[in-house]
Design a protein that fits this description.
140 residues, alpha/beta, 5 helices, 5 strands, 19% strand, binds 1,3,4-trihydroxy-5-OXO-cyclohexanecarboxylic acid
Length: 140
Amino acid sequence: MKKLIIINGPNLNLLGKREPEIYGSLSFTEFLDEIKAQYNDISIDYFQSNVEGEIINKLHEVGFNHDGIVLNAAAYTHTSVGIGDAVAAIETPVVEVHISNTFDREEFRHQSYVAPHAKGVIVGFGLQSYELAIQSFIKK
Ligand code: DQA
């Protein structure tokens, strides 16, 4: 069985409550339950942290024993050399995702420290961005 993990960065624990006009009104746990039911032939772990170092530790922990990582580093995408370096350091391929179209927003959201080390980037499809990333790991 393929082993994937979704890693969410800061403030994404508030999905459903946080700026619903940008991020939608579904909580991530509700969405995850749906996705797990739909893709029941793969294992999908989940980790969320608001703390940069905890995200780096998780990338190290899963980065040599999972088949794929779906990473929404949220605001740290645009600031964290450390998370970018961690993505470069691990073996498991990482797909960077964003719910909103970061290129249609403030200039500071156009920069990503993750993207140069990612297998690919999926931006702007709402929560479906995560599903597209999962499909990228299972579709040949
Ligand atoms: C985000 C986009 C980031 O710019 C922002 O800081 C987030 C969420 C997204 O999924 O659209 O927290 O990563």
